[in-house]
Write a structure and sequence with these properties.
1 helix; elongated; ComGG_streptococcus-type
């Protein structure tokens, strides 16, 4: 019975730790994705956050993000919006 209780507490602690790391990586990727859409950044690079390191690479319309949190690695892929060409709509009368 004692072994069962110890195993359950160990499993619960491991699940808790992995869940926290997953959420931290997801938050890092979402924050960077928002920054990438707002600013003109290089097609590849890296960022350091207080919980881990993020590397990214743009491949056409895809943004590949890899987050390293403690000893775990997470990969996220975002579809970027298509760039719309600017159209001059001013009527010029000659």
């Amino acid at each position: 019975m004692l072994l069962l209780v110890l195993e359950n507490s160990r499993t619960t602690a491991l699940f808790y730790t992995k869940t926290i790391e997953t959420y931290e990586a997801r938050i890092m990727s979402e924050l960077f994705h928002a920054e990438f859409l707002q600013n003109e950044l290089a097609d590849q690079g890296s960022r350091l956050y207080n919980v881990g390191k993020l590397t990214y690479e743009r491949q056409g319309q895809l943004l590949q993000i890899e987050c390293h949190v403690k000893s775990r690695r997470f990969t996220f892929t975002f579809l970027l919006p298509e760039e719309e060409p600017e159209i001059d709509t001013d009527d010029q009368e000659e």
